[in-house]
Amino acid sequence: MNEKENVKHIIEYVGGEHNIKKVWHCMTRLRFDLYDFSKINREEIKALEGVMGDQLTNDQYQIVIGTHVQKVHEALTNELNIEENSEESQSASTKKKGFFGALLDVVSGVFGPIVPAIAWSLDD
């Protein structure tokens, strides 16, 4: 997968560089705080190579990348010309959400990537 090309598309499909307030990552997802969620082109993002899915919550847009999310995040921050501070942003987000919200993020981050495999095996 070419991270540099994918992040250019991701930036475009989340509404452009000026629509991004903040971006960070957890173990498997890119996480965005955006100014206008209506600018997201979810179908195009889900069609990108290496994207396993997405999730739109009240205050955050998440793109499920998988275990190589750190490489994608690094390419994204380089493209946006911003400093990497994923740990600081992640801990601030966890404090804002509280314990239960953070626990749900961990559970969904762990089990989210295997849901397609489970669904596929149930089709047989």
From TrEMBL:
Keyword Translocase part of the UniProt annotation: no
Protein name per UniProt: PTS transporter subunit EIIB
Lineage: Bacteria, Bacillati, Bacillota, Bacilli, Bacillales
Signal peptide: none
Alphabetical list of InterPro entries matching this protein: Glu_permease_IIB, PTrfase_EIIB_Cys, PTS_IIB_1, PTS_Sugar-Specific_Components
Domain named PTS EIIB type-1: residues: 4-86
Cited Pfam families: PTS_EIIB
Gene3D superfamilies registered for this protein in UniProt: Glucose permease domain IIB
CDD domains (alphabetical): PTS_IIB_glc (cd00212)
Top-level division of the source organism's lineage: Bacteria
Keywords assigned by UniProt, alphabetized: Kinase, Membrane, Phosphotransferase system, Sugar transport, Transferase, Transmembrane, Transmembrane helix, Transport
Residue ranges of the TM segments: 99-122
List of catalytic residues: 26 (phosphocysteine intermediate)
